[in-house]
Amino acid sequence: MSALETLYTSLYSALRNDTLWQDRVYPEIVPAQVIRPYVVFFVSSGGERNDLKRDDAEFTISVKCVALQMADAMAGASRISALLNNQGSQDGGTITGDANWTITTIEQLRIIQQIEMISDDKPLYNSGHQYNIVMEKL
């Protein structure tokens, strides 16, 4: 697996089955007409880090909860933060990667807060953070 595949699989596993969004966790593309709230995550930037002689990677990932109510979106962002922030292997966390790549650190960065207008002029609230994730090939 590539670093990005390992990262996406690890994030999906860490985020699914929450009581707020259940298994509605999507990497990059959200199906049409999905029940809200849900979580979506995607790469904002990243790739080869070039800090070590072996392969390593660093990604900035956006992770957000999308809901029909602002309170649900913000509660979702708080839950995401509790599940991801400082959960890499060097932090003693539970999101450690796979047999090919280790996720060494997960650091919470900038806030994501956005309101979209959907059908019938209803607001759709997006709330979350960007995370800096460092990985090393095993």
Could you please describe the fold and organization of this structure?
- The protein is of the alpha+beta class and 138 residues long.
- It has a single domain, classed as 2-Layer Sandwich (STM4215-like).
- 20% of the residues lie in helices and 43% in strands.
- The chain has two helices and five strands; from the N terminus they run αβββαββ.
- It has helices at 3-15, 70-84; strands spanning 25-27, 38-48, 56-67, 101-118, 122-137.
- Strands 1-2-3-5-4 form a five-stranded mixed sheet.
- A hairpin with a 7-residue loop joins strand 2 (38-48) and strand 3.
- The model has no long low-confidence stretch (mean pLDDT 94).
Number of separate structural domains: 1
- Taken in chain order, the helices and strands follow as HEEEHEE
Summarize the amount of helix as a percent range: 10-25%
CATH architecture: 2-Layer Sandwich
Which sequence of strands runs across the widest sheet? 1-2-3-5-4
Cα shape: elongated
CATH class: Alpha Beta
Q: Provide a count of the helices.
A: 2
Structural class: alpha+beta
* Model regions low in confidence, pLDDT < 50 over at least 5 residues: none
Largest sheet features: 5 strands, mixed
Q: Average pLDDT across residues?
A: 94
The radius of gyration computed from the alpha-carbon positions, rounded to a whole number of angstroms, is 15 Å
Measured distance between first and last alpha carbons: 12 Å
User: Beta-sheet strand percentage?
Assistant: 35-45%
Q: Within the CATH hierarchy, at the fold level, what is the topology?
A: STM4215-like
Beta strand count: 5
